[in-house]
Specification:
single chain; 104 residues; mainly beta; Rieske Iron-sulfur Protein; four-stranded antiparallel sheet; 0% helix; binds FE2/S2 (inorganic) cluster
Length: 104
């Protein structure tokens, strides 16, 4: 049965940045964009690079550091090749300025 895991304080992740955390044995990247905070699996679907080593562009897309694939921070869907498959996203909630990630 899944549960929410307390992962980070909101202030740990400045606007336009992302950070990687281990959550229940998986690496999860939390992104902070103009639209809020979002959590994705921290593994590029193209060749398994940690996408948290990349950047978030002005469209709210993560740019993979290895070959430049782009993923929507909000949904995990692919926005640019060479990746063709999206990245899993996780539900989050924020309570008392702490970010929680839901894992099954
Ligand atoms: S590993 Fe991310 S684009 Fe290739």
């Amino acid at each position: 049965m899944g549960q929410f895991y307390e992962v980070a304080h909101k202030d740990d992740i400045p606007l336009g940045k992302m950070k990687s955390y281990e959550v229940d044995y998986d690496m999860v990247v939390i992104c902070h964009t103009e639209e809020g905070y979002f959590a994705l699996e921290d593994v590029c679907s193209h060749d398994s690079a940690p996408i948290s080593d990349g950047t978030i562009n002005r469209h709210g897309h993560i740019v993979c550091p290895r070959h430049g694939a782009k993923f929507d921070c909000k949904t995990g869907e692919v926005k640019a090749a060479p990746a063709v498959v999206g990245i899993d996203k996780f539900e989050i909630k924020i309570e008392n300025d702490m970010i929680f990630v839901y894992k099954d």
